[in-house]
């Protein structure tokens, strides 16, 4: 039906279209029954595990999982949301396909913005690696995001997505140990010799962690965009900033 038609656009070549369609699915899920929302998530989990799936298909599935787990949280069993988080965590460790890791980081950030992750907080070991006992923990996720931020990938989008995710985790969950762990990873990343755009993205994430505030614009500071409230009618961000 119409839902299947919409889902088909999740697997197109356009990154912007995949993100848009995933967000639309998330909004539609607000009016779905528990069985309907769970059915879509189960289908996305299955498609993502398909060995014949293209990179674009997997990216679309991961983004959809992020938006669905965030928007339809009240319709889903904790076990279903935990399965989504576990799958996103696994995809974050995909070293062969950096695009997959990028989409997974983006998705885990979306889930974190909407509420605390449906997994135990866990503990951070002295070596900085998450201690996992009986499954994925929030600290294990923070540890992996920190590892991504300190990596040597040439593709900057994965760093932006990792910083976004770390900042998102502390918007709803204000545990002292989690806030400290997230700030530690972000401050460590800020000391690396990276491009200005990433430093801006890390700074935005630090503000989210420190102040429990949501991101103020659909486009991050790493894209040199200001919050829409400061733009003029012609969408001239630089002019608006000067006037402001």
Automatic annotation (TrEMBL):
It comes from Hemiselmis andersenii (Cryptophyte alga). Residues 2-79 form the ECM29 ARM-like repeats domain. It holds the Pfam family ARM_ECM29. This is ECM29 ARM-like repeats domain-containing protein. Gene3D superfamilies: Leucine-rich Repeat Variant. It comes from the Eukaryota.
């Amino acid at each position: 039906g119409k839902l299947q038609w919409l889902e088909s656009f999740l697997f197109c070549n356009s990154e912007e279209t995949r993100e848009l369609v995933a967000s639309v699915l998330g909004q539609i899920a607000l009016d779905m029954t528990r069985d309907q929302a769970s059915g879509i998530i189960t289908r996305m989990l299955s498609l993502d595990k398909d060995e014949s799936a293209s990179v674009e298909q997997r990216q679309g599935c991961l983004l959809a999982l992020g938006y669905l787990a965030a928007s339809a949280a009240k319709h889903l069993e904790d076990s279903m949301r935990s399965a989504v988080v576990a799958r996103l965590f696994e995809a974050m460790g995909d070293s062969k396909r950096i695009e997959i890791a990028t989409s997974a980081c983006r998705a885990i950030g979306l889930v974190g913005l909407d509420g605390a992750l449906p997994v135990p907080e866990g503990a951070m070991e002295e070596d900085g690696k998450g201690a996992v006992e009986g499954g994925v923990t929030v600290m294990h996720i923070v540890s992996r995001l920190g590892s991504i931020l300190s990596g040597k990938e040439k593709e900057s989008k994965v760093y932006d997505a990792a910083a976004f995710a770390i900042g998102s985790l502390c918007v709803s969950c204000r545990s002292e140990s989690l806030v400290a762990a997230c700030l530690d990873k972000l401050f460590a990343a800020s000391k690396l010799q990276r491009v200005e755009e990433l430093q801006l993205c890390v700074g935005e994430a630090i503000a989210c962690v420190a102040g429990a505030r949501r991101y103020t614009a659909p486009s991050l500071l790493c894209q040199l965009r200001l919050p829409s409230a400061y733009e003029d009618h012609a969408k001239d961000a630089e002019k608006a900033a000067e006037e402001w």
